[in-house]
Amino acid sequence: MAEALISVLLEQLASVVFEHTRQAVTLVLNAKEDVHSFSSNLKAIQAVLEDAEKKQVTEARVRDWLQNLKDVSYEMDDVLDEWNTEILKQQVEEGENAFVTKKKVRFPTPANCFCFGQVNKAIHHHNIARSIKKLNEKLTVIAAEKEKYDFHLSTIRGTDEQLIQRQKTSSLVDISTIFGREEEKEFLLSKLLRESNQDGGRFLVIPIVGMGGMGKTTLTQLAYNNEKVTAHFQKKVWVCISDPFDEIKIAKAIIESLDKNETQRSSNELETLLSCIKTHVEKKKFLLVLDDVWTEDKTKWESLKLSVILQSCEEGSTILVTTRKEGVAEMMRATSSMIHLDKLSYGDCLALFNSIAFFDREEDKANGFGAIGEEIVKKCKGLPLVAKTLGSLVWHKKTREEWQQVLNSKIWEIEEVEEQVFRPLLLSYYDLAPAVKRCLLYCATFPKDYELRKHKLIDLWMSQDYLNSKGKKEKRRIGQNYFESLSMRSFFQDFDKDCKGNIIACKMHDIVHDFVRFLAQKECIIIEAVQGNNKKMEPSGNKVCHLTLTSLPEGPLSFPISFDNCKSMRTLTLLGSSITNISPSSIMQMKCLRTLNLSGNSLHEVPKEIGELTHLRYMDLSDNRNLKELPDAVCDLYNLQTLVLVGCQYLQKLPKAMGKLINLKHLYVTGCYGLRYLPKGIGSLKSLQVLDCFYVCEGDDDEALKLGYLGIMDQLQVSLRIERLGGKDDASEIEKAQLGNKEHLSELAVRFEMQSLEQRKGDDEIVKALQPHQNLESLWIGFCQIGTTESLYWIKSLHNLRRVYLCNWQFCQLLPPFGKLPLLEILDIFRMGKVKKVGVEFLGIEEEEEEQVSGILFPKLKRLSFWDMANWEEWTFLSEITIMPRLSELHIRSCPKLKALPDFLYKIPALSTLKIVACPILGGEYEKGMGKEWHNISHIPNLTIQSE
Ligand SMILES: *[C@@H]1O[C@H](CO)[C@@H](O)[C@H](O)[C@H]1NC(C)=O
Ligand SMILES: *[C@@H]1O[C@H](CO)[C@@H](O)[C@H](O)[C@H]1NC(C)=O
Ligand SMILES: *[C@@H]1O[C@H](CO)[C@@H](O)[C@H](O)[C@H]1NC(C)=O
Ligand SMILES: *[C@@H]1O[C@H](CO)[C@@H](O)[C@H](O)[C@H]1NC(C)=O
Predict the structure, then answer these.
(1) 259 CB near ligand 1 (under 6 Å)
(2) Of the candidates 46, 12, 37, which has an alpha carbon nearest to the alpha carbon of residue 137?
């Protein structure tokens, strides 16, 4: 994938800073010419790249040439990065000096030492300049070589198409190949025949969306040829749309299909063509199929004036569109009648496969072929195209051994699969922008069926510097756009969404994964360590860019491939491994690393050489339970953007100089309970957007970051957790922290120091000062020792609050007022031992107000839980008001004294789940068939009443 690499590199070259490094300028200035010459060489190469990428498929020497080009490009990228790092370093040092001077604690620097440092630096700059010179020489040779290959200059988009012949579809269908899809078929037919009155309007646009090979065209053909449909429409036209979207060609195709004799079809005037179409279909019921539409360009779509033409047709006319891109449906404003095609079930897939594989040789099924076939179908992962391809492949194979071979081979090594299955995917792939292609290919570093968390994926892309833009657009935003772009083209699927409907995780279809692995096979390698297998693998002499190792056993990290191949490695991920240490020499071999994931191992320490990985941007050391400290050298990673230490529970402290990590955007330290405090320097990190957990220091410590520092960290986003509140200064520190100003914070969790038995003083003051910004959506407060809820007065103003969790408030007698929060959806209350009665205070209204309350209380509440309320006896309510109309789940557990549920609950139609566990009194009242109150709740569909 040189294309994306080079376009990004060119941008970087264009923005190289020459003037910045003061002492260095003179030395580096002669590099300026080399950089210019490098850029112009690269531009000349870029012009033939498209052709080269295609030629490499068949020509080995072109492949080598491209590989050399990629190597040089990567090296240049590294050198530029080193240069930038040098600039960063200088900024940090200058900053530090300023800091030291201000504090007037400057120590005399031994003169010779100072000089030595300068000389070192000069040598380093000189080396950078020399590397650039060398790389330029190499690239000049490569650029000259390109003449040998007779490349064509690229034209604008659309040429990709010649590479892969697009299969023309037609409206003829082989009925025998339709399996599954009954539901979709019924739905589609009822829409076409307008069986429901809801599909109002004169005409409908129905998009059928799904990834390549999912059977969109097949389904459409089936509907198109259906007898009822044929009788229903007076005119039917099927057009296979090509990319680029050419209005004239499309119009001509429609006319040709309407009337072979039509003389107008030779015209090149769109208007003429369109009015010709109109005369043919006017006042008729017209069905138009546009197969395989790619364009999302509204102007092109609108210039076809189909809506004008359809207006003149008889009511009920329809346009059916198949596409891989949801964006097409959006562009046509037809998402409401969209049909999504998903995977076939195993059974349907098997039936489809069998119908082809055993065509005319039914008797073989019982002869052992059937069993192999069943295994082969598992590889199809519900994709009909693969089932068809493999089915026809084995149909030609006469022996069981041959079938077994197909089963044993990697799916992308089967030539037929490459040709027929990857081809449709390749079309989707070529449709992506170069930068998005890179992001997709990076997913080849994950194993099959791996759940991709969206925010992590974006962090990873960022760490590889894939998310650049010319403007000032925020990288995360760009990452989100790329993610969407891949999702809408069905490269991602199985979405997991949060309560607001935002995608938080996804997977790749197995075939898409195979496809991506196929494209990135040279750069991304996944190796599973097999016990007792110490043989070094040689991945065909290629330099590995991204390496994923899985299941490494206990012991030191050892590479199953030789170091030589790893030297320019940019990603190292260990999955499901348990290495205990990593040697300094291994680290020194990976100097180009951008991304390092050592999560979930048993590392005892991280060697100080880690500081040499100056390109590193993402480091995940989470869940290394034996890790007690990090070397100070971590603070030399000036490019580091993300540091993940979640769950390193024995980590005792973080390096003091963390203020030097001027690019740090995300610091994740939740679950590092061994940390006594966060170092002060973190407070000065201007780039820091995510600090997921703050540890309040017990006692005084000069080096500790005080809570009050949060006051100057307005840039913090998403979520913050504060641990160990309750100290005597905390109220004033929280006040300084000004949580009320953090408008980008949507989740806040605070946990007070546990310490029970006696009520701690000062919690009221702390709670008062906690008042967050009203944009807050989720609030968690634990172990708070307030006696009344007065200090929580601000809760009523949090109009955006959706989730609240309260736990272990051992001294509070009443619940806080939640009833008027307009968006509250989830409320969980655990262990409020002093609460005896829940009444109007919970609704958020005053006793005397009772009479005049109007409106609805808890209007959006969906889930409510009460756990471990040892003294709770009574739950009263007001009969005149509507309460919790949307409640669908109620859980009550271990509330031994609670006598009854309030009547209003019986009448909530939405309530579908009620679970009462370990509540002896309630358990008796509501006992199935026996209890006095049973009839009041027996209508609830999902009902559980258990004694334990
Ligand atoms: C086209 O022209 C041929 C010969 O002139 C004629 O037989 C045929 O019916 C025409 N078809 C239509 C659809 O007008
Ligand atoms: C890092 O590795 C851990 C497990 O080893 C995995 O759960 C996590 O998703 C990985 N992180 C990324 C960003 O790939
Ligand atoms: C609950 O059920 C009992 C017995 O069926 C009935 O007498 C009582 O009125 C019901 N309560 C409500 C509020 O419907
Ligand atoms: C039934 O209740 C359980 C919890 O008690 C819940 O996990 C499950 O999703 C509920 N089922 C339905 C169909 O609502």
Answers:
(1) yes
(2) 37
